[in-house]
Structure of Amino acid transporter transmembrane domain-containing protein:
Amino acid sequence: MGGRGGDPQTGPLLEKLPEPSCSSSEPEEHPVKRTGTVWTASAHIITAVVGSGVLSLAWSVAQLGWVGGAAAIVFFAGVTVVQSSLLAECYVSRGDPERGGLIRNKSYMNAVRFYLGERRQMLSGFFLSISLFGSGVVYTLTTATSMRAIHEANRYGREGQQQGAPFSTATAGGSDVYYMLLFGLAQAVLSQIPDFHNMAWLSVFAAVMSFFYSFVGFGLGAAKVIENGVIKGGIGGIPLASPMQKVWRVAQSLGDIAFAYPYTLVLLEIEDTLRSPPAESITMKAASRASIAITTFFYLGCGCFGYAAFGDGTPGNLLTGFGEPYWLIDLANLCVVLHLLGGYQLYSQPAFALVERRFGAEAWVVEVPLPLLRWRRSVNVFRLCFRTAYVVAVTAVAVWYPYFNQVVGLIGAFTFWPLDIHFPVQMYLAQNKVAPWTTRWLAIQAFSATCLLVAVFASVGSAVGVFGPNRS
């Protein structure tokens, strides 16, 4: 993702130059003051990347074994660095030669339209809508599980010693609906945050939460290994009854690791918060490299220590494998909840922006008088209604299909290559006018083809996991 706009004078110009109407970016009638730095961008990225999925990586490593598990985590970290670098360069582009100026592609959809045309934009919009909506459903389900785990752990702490009350996070109950509704209510409020420019505080807070529960999983895994006095696990991972079952498990675990990394759908929105000079792409690439390095450290720690601690008995969620200390596991689950409050918004903002730009939401502002307070408040009616309805729809799907996360896993596999690899690669080639059959063109196409093969393999494995007779 290399540096267009490296001239230090381009920063101020970008705030003043109008954008051609033919571009995929919207004109800035009221330019936004961009103040983001490497630190705020890194917080946004970590919030987007490090989700509760980090706690399932031990299970993935257990399927792949010591060599394959660690190698897969490092491989997909490298894939994410490359594809995020390609996309970061597509943020700023030269405008219409006859009209001059520079163009900001402020969102993924805008960039696809500008570089690849409206038809490709419609296709990417289809995959994008599935991915963003599905992410919201998964976050709602995951948060409800963590909230219920806190409730059950506390109940066991009060009653377990006397009455033998069981502690289990595996059994879903009616109380999940209550927790989903609470989470949905919180998101309905947070969704009124206008855009990414106003979310730095939320991302910093969410990133701190993700650090904490990742540290807890990391630390408890290491402590368990020390307590056992032996490193469990093997080179080939967990043995299964048949070679075909092993193949599907490997495919599913590759999918889990692959889809734990990318943040393509929110990358350009994050880049649009950055100040310049230096060029936004330079800052974004630095933030991406730092964030992925930190993320990979935690992924390797949680995945490998978890497998070393439990071996063939590695649980799907690392935190559920530890019985004590209850207070620490409670705190870790609370951090999962608080982190996903911010992560949900990070993945919802592109969906909000997509619809609001399409329907001109800025024209729906009204003044609402508050006589008792002698105060008038500007309210965007479209934003209030649409965002609330979106959160309600996500929450409803989660409530109606409480095991929908397996289906969304399949959707994630289905959308990985087109959204995270194909479109960014094609936009980069178009922007830089890379000639076909040159060395750079062949290298980029080989990268895309390799990721396609992995995505197809993971998609088939995920489909077997959802629809097969031996669902895992």
The beta strands are 92-94, 102-104, 365-370, 375-380. Residues 38-160+174-467 form a domain with the Amino acid/polyamine transporter I fold (CATH 1.20.1740.10). Confidence is low (pLDDT under 50) at residues 1-27, 96-100, 161-174.
